[in-house]
């Protein structure tokens, strides 16, 4: 298949199917063959693969994905500085060809493998919180949930000089964190820890579990922040909103959404921080090996998408990051 994309054709059914070729190349566009795409498991499972009740507008068929690295092959006449063969990070889906405005791609540093470069896209999810939080380096940051986004968020804040602690009930993920250099790891929120209670500046809630949000609000210092990064796709407890409201009231806590798009896509004179500026920083840190990824990336043929999503759904997937390898696709 010359042009193809992973397509969710029905609930829990992923196929690699032909798609139409990209449209005409615009004067400011760049186009090329996809090298690697990264699965965002929370969004892709709940929104695309399952058609969650939390995503009632989603329909089948749909084409998931928003983290891709491709190789530049064609550029419009207004594009400057992108040479053929350059690897580019973009917000592209799981498809064989990418076409984007040159302003919306970021060159992958020389020597950084495409499969690792794609991880920068998920780093951007918590990069916005790093840009907007009132917490400052040296403050305590508690990350709840160490899936792909939480793992990366923990390292983003650790690299920035924060005192990072992580809550993760899964023993294997706790061990991954310790091996990666994050030593303060708990299997449950340490509500009675004297060095944490009333001393946490920021809770980066990445699990999507309402108990984690409530526990975080109970731990934060006065005017501390609880940022809801993980999506609560479904109800997972019998907690009452009153319990959360009471914790917020007594701690004067700030509870807000982890809205990735709170900063603009590109920097402006009024806002120097931006989505794509975050991607550039993420790629630099990945190239400098400041985000440990050894042994955490599992490569897959796009034709095996069904087994990949089933592995994520059933908790049997190997590796923290699932990447489709388009350069070596069987088709």
Description:
The structure is a single chain. By secondary structure, the protein is of the alpha/beta class. Helix content is about 30%, strand content about 25%. The chain has helices at about 40-50, 115, 120-130, 150-160, 170-180, 210-220, 240-250, 275-285, 305-315, and strands spanning about 5-10, 15-20, 30-40, 70-75, 85-90, 95-100, 105, 140-145, 165, 185, 200-205, 220-230, 255, 295-300, 320-325. It is globular and about 60 Å long.
Helix/strand class = alpha/beta
Largest sheet: 7 strands, mixed
**Strand-residue fraction?**
15-25%
What does the overall shape look like? globular
Q: Enumerate how many helices there are, as a single number.
A: 9
Tell me the radius of gyration. 20 Å
The number of domains: 2
